[in-house]
Design a protein that fits this description.
The chain has ten helices and ten strands. It is globular and about 45 Å long.
Length: about 300
Amino acid sequence: MTHTTGNIDDFAIDTASMAGPLDARLDAVREAGFSQVLLHAHDLTAYPLGVDAATRRVLGSGLQVAGLWGLTQYEGLSGAAHLFKLKTAKALVSLCEQLQCDQLLLQACSHPAAAPGATAQHVGALRKLAMLAIPKQIRVVYSACAEAPHATGFAQAWDLVCEADMPNLGLGLGCATLLEFVAGQSMDELEMLDVDKVFLVHLADFLEKPQALATAPTAALESVFAGEGIYGQVIAAMVTRLHALGYRASYNLAADHADYRQISAASVAHRARRAALWLGEQVLERSVPMPNSMRLKKASAS
């Protein structure tokens, strides 16, 4: 990767952004020029020929797996629910190892049965997960969730990561972080982060204005690729600030919009490539405004 300048090798594309069978999506990612892909465990378990065949297909694609989604609603649970989640976690850590993927992704738990507040129960669960992953040399990437009371924003998630204090446990910055900045939170708060413990940054854009965003759960919002919505300037500012702080890990391009599911995986992957080229060649390398071909409306525009 050329992290000092930023190019498409610095970006992964989330397979959930595309429709179609896994084979077609992997081919589309590769043909669009990406070298990294972010997978979901369901991509492999739903493969018609089985998980082992899916794993071989991924490894044979030549794509590096930047991270694996699959573990959900994990921390803050107790009793049988906690033990059940631990078994799932062990299976997913093993799947990461098979995929030669060194990052297991986890979003903060919003389950109503989870313990309220950022308690020792949450920290203990995160530490236990990190300990499970250490022997496999896998990192756990923990992200905030707007619906998780104990980790609504990145600052709360960061506090939990720091309190757990495990070498392979780090922070993921995602859509919830972007929406914090859209809502007016100062990007100066990024200064408190140790960027060596920021393991992955997820980038997506939105078509709605802040008023609409405030009335819907994050998971229910339809997202588009960076630069296709109305918050390109916020995304550019966030990426520029992180780069200035020394962030040199990967960016994951993700989008979840019904229209993407009506077109081919190849078409979607090329739209992601356009976002990667803007971010890599314009924002990261020269930190200039978007080119005219990607001019966006300001969030305050009608």
